[in-house]
Give the backbone structure.
Amino acid sequence: MPAKKPAPVARRPVGITDTTLRDGHQSLLATRMKLEDMLPIAEKMDQVGFHSLEVWGGATFDTCLRFLNEDPWERLRALRRAFKRTKLQMLLRGQNLVGYKHYPDDVVEAFVKKAVENGIDILRIFDALNDVRNMEKAMAVGKKAGAQIQGTISYTISPVHSVPHYVKMARSLADLGADSICIKDMAGILTPTAAVDLITELKKEVRLPVQVHAHYTSGMASMTYLKAIEAGADVIDTAMSPLAMGTSQPATETMVATLAGTRYDTGLDLGLLSEIAGYFKEVRTKYREFDVAGGMVDVNVLVYQIPGGMISNFISQLQQQNAIDKLSQVLEEVPRVRQDLGYPPLVTPTSQIVGSQAVINVLMGERYKMATNEVKAYVRGLYGRPPGKVDPAVRKKIIGDEKPITHRPADDIPPGLAEAKKEVAPLMEKEEDVLSYALFPPIAKKFFEERMAARTGTDQRLVEEARKESKTGYYPV
């Protein structure tokens, strides 16, 4: 009898979220890409068939106001008009929104509603401590507003972080209404083997789509993606090759080519992707001033779990203190501080909290002789529940006999929207201005004042020109 033919393997196309317009340039160009360099390529990117495009959130909001003289809300609206077919996605830091501290519930509610109203389809929501209590408000509001909610695990390695720990967190996120789960590997330390173990359990126990976001810093991310896909991952994050690798994500074209012809084939057109990559190759040359990220693999991230951006910050801080020779001591101090503080994942803002304290400990020559205000707030529980126990001796040195809070930190924050509206009223042009001010008061105020001055100046110039043309020398306004 003829041998039976093996049953055909079911196709399981993998989705691609392209991060070029957010994390790609945040990781490699200090978040400096302007809207004017995004819009000309939007139509072609919209034709690709991406699962989604990450275009907003993270550091983009702050950078638009602080450095680029762009209104982040106007950017979002312009991108929404340009991308007619593709879902737009943003990164939201839970109760921190797009800032670096907890905001009141009324600000969180208004911000999330406006983000969805202005064009965001998918909210990727995370908390630096993986404290689900800090995510639940934004998740609930986003869900009610009609967005897809992606509950996010900030991946790290420590004695208190394990597969059962992450699965338990994912169950909590599912209970809060998450539509999918993201594994956010911000340091690039998720190994292929660890990805298989974690995703296998998530798919079995939580039964939600799983997306993987990994940085290329350690050189493992492409291998990790391939094993993650085989284990059941549904979507991966990539960036167009000119803004990929290094501390960014794996290259979109490379992953599409890798999966082509397999059961995981993305179905995306490499020819079209090549055209888009050519555009961004030219764009990157415009930002040489900020293009300081080395493309080499950084083994420090494997030894110290330090994201790439932290090391450049250390170099800058130590140079200012004429102490660059102490860099190796700072790198060794980071994991010790992290252990003292209960093993927080190193992602904004905890990476800054741990990093700054490590620098101070080394420069002072005595550990915790001086603690930053942020470390004091962290130990008091004002950022949320640490994953592990804070060292009792360290806690006593930092806050004495004060007892840390055990409830959700935002429960102690009074409403802030009405006061923000009152303060910004003379400069306000639209509802979103109140939110920009509530998040970044001095920065937003400066932006609004310059906006008003520029428009007033333009109006006055037009009036003067009209008066010159008038026979009477007078022009009614």
Observations:
- The chain is about 50% helix and 10% strand.
- The first strand starts at residue 15 and ends at 18.
- Residues 441-469 form the longest helix (29 residues).
